[in-house]
Amino acid sequence: MNTLLDLIFSRHSIRDYTGEIIKNEDIELIVKAGMAAPSAVNVQPWAFIIINKKDKLINLSKLLPYAKMLEQSGAAIIVCGVPDKDMHFANKYWIQDCSAASENILLAAHSLGYGAVWTAVYPEEKRINDVRIECNIPNNIIPLNVIAIGVPKNKNMIPIDKYKIENIHWNTW
User: Fold this and answer.
1) How far apart are CA 94 and CA 10, in angstroms?
2) 102 with 34: CB under 8 angstroms?
3) Which residues neighbour 32 within 8 Å (Cβ) at sequence distance 6 or greater?
4) 19-153 belongs to which CATH class?
5) Beta carbons of 124 and 68 less than 8 angstroms apart
6) SS3 at position 145
7) What is the dihedral of CA 123, 26, 74, 111, to 10 degrees?
8) Which of 33, 65, 91, 121 fits 108 for a cystine, CB–CB 3.0-4.6 Å?
9) 145/78 Cα distance (integer angstroms)
């Protein structure tokens, strides 16, 4: 197996961190990997908000019901959609495009030895509004998720094998 496949198969959600700060260079590299994702007609209808201030991480952990781990994370990346960047492709495909960017972010964090987890914001209106207010996000920008990133407390976790042959159909259902 090659290194990329090893990385994909060994990545898993990490929710328990040491609290160590993530280097800015690493965060920028992780976001750069997000921007390398494919998007419909290469419109790239995304924006990324980097959160590395402890008070913001704590506030977000209190606002979002499934993001309590942000309190111990070293940083977070809010992946946002910009649907009005293009009235046809961005408006229609921003969720898929930002999801591809999010997966790249998760893989990049894992490749650098960090743990990460995607916590959903969109489509929950309360979560969207809470994140918008906390991070001063304009109304035309939609937060899709908040990805917590940190140094894992337990580096010996074994990922779950998610392969299920019954989910594969060749040529027909």
Assistant:
1) 27
2) yes
3) 108
4) alpha beta
5) no
6) strand
7) 70
8) 33
9) 6
Question: Measured in whole angstroms, how far is the alpha carbon of residue 123 from the centre of its chain?
Answer: 15
pLDDT tens track of the chain, all 173 residues? 579 999 999 999 999 999 999 999 999 999 999 999 999 999 999 999 999 999 999 999 999 999 999 999 999 999 999 999 998 999 999 999 999 999 999 999 999 999 999 999 999 999 999 999 999 999 999 999 999 999 999 888 888 899 999 999 999 99
Give me 157's structure tokens: 């976790």
Backbone angles phi, psi at 56, to 5 degrees: -70, -40
Sheet hosting strand 75-81, strand order edge to edge? 46-51, 75-81, 142-150, 115-120
Q: Would you list the domain boundaries of the chain?
A: 19-153
* Residue 35 to residue 160: CA distance in whole angstroms: 27
Report the C-alpha gap between 144 and 45 in whole angstroms.
12
Partners of 146 in beta bridges: 78, 119
- In angstroms, what CA-CA distances link 148 with 27, 52, 76, 115? 11, 10, 4, 8
Angstrom distance (rounded) from CA 168 to CA 146: 31
